[in-house]
Amino acid sequence: MADSRVGGTQAACGKQKRTALYFSRPRPPEPRLAPRARPSPDRPTRQPRSAATRDRILAATEALLAAGDAEALTIEQVAERAHVSVGAIYKRFRGKDSLLPLVLERVHEQQFQHLREMLAQPRWTHAGLGERIDGLLAAFADSQMARQRLIRALVVGYWQSPDQHGQAERSAELMATMHAWLLERAGEIRHPEPRLAISLGLFTTLQTLQSAIVLERIPPELGLPRFVAEQARMFRAYLGIEGGAAAPPPA
User: Fold this and answer.
1) With contact defined as beta carbons under 8 Å apart, do 233 and 247 qualify?
2) Close Cβ partners of 132 (under 8 Å, ≥ 6 residues apart)
């Protein structure tokens, strides 16, 4: 009987020791999960033919938005314009709301390409900062006027989109390119903080121009050319520089 109790006690002690050893033993670190990527607004395409269909759908959406209203746009209209079935659209996209950010991305890319070509023109090599500001704002205003209805629809779609991160990055890239181009003439700026002045001046001026053009808020007594020229004059005055094109006479 005593032997049985001793044996039981030894077994219990052995079990406790093994348990203690298990918990005191260094455990391997748990694997770290990779951060989850943001969901893409469209579904991946693997075949060239499928990619061509995707581009046709986006081009059709862009054309319809340029001629109409984003809220009134339907998948059926896009399918008819792109000469595809409704099912083909849903195979590649999650719905109408996922089309708008992608069309905006296309427009941003086109604007970026146009901007790169403009900034690379030889005529800007020896141009002063005032001339560069005038040329940049005039080109920006022209691009907004050329696609006024499309940009209005896309801006509304952008603010309604659940994923604005990608578009914000693209806009920031455009702004950074313009900022660097103007900063090449930083020696002409009298503002005590040239980088800050160019950033704030660009942001304020471009936002004002886009809102006035896209929402049709240009004061009728000014007209577009004079409105753009006055915005450029305010930008130059804020930077503390002279020069630039003379403002057009009142309409």
Assistant:
1) yes
2) 124, 181, 182, 185
Average pLDDT over residues 222-227: 94
CA distance 147 to 214: 9
- What pLDDT, in 10s, does the model give residues 174-223? 899 999 999 999 999 999 999 999 999 999 999 999 889 988 899 999 99
CA separation, residue 239 to residues 23, 42, 190, 234 (Å): 68, 43, 6, 9
Amino acid code (one letter) for 205: T
Q: Which of 197, 194, 178 is nearest to 186 (CA)?
A: 194
pTM of this structure? 0.69
Residues sharing a CB contact under 8 Å with residue 51, sequence separation 6 or more, in sequence order:
45
Instruction: Note whether 83 and 53 are within 8 A (CB).
Output: no
Asked whether 58 and 99 are in contact (CB, 8 A), the reply is yes
What structural domains and CATH numbers belong to the chain?
Answer: 47-93 (1.10.10.60), 100-239 (1.10.357)
Question: What pLDDT is attached to residue 14?
Answer: 53
In three-state secondary structure terms, 42 is strand
User: Using one digit for the tens of pLDDT, what is the confidence trace for 131-148?
Assistant: 999 999 999 999 888 888
Buried b (16+ CB within 10 A) or exposed e, 158-168: beebeeeebbe
Look at residues 81, 73, 76 and name the one whose alpha carbon lies nearest to residue 53. Answer: 81
The per-residue DSSP string of 98-162 comes to HHHHHHHHHHHHHHHHHHHHHHT-GGGTT--HHHHHHHHHHHHHHHHHHTHHHHHHHHHHHHH-S
Write the pLDDT tens digit of every residue in 6-53: 455 555 555 454 444 433 444 444 444 444 444 445 555 556 677 889
d(CA 124, CA 133): 11
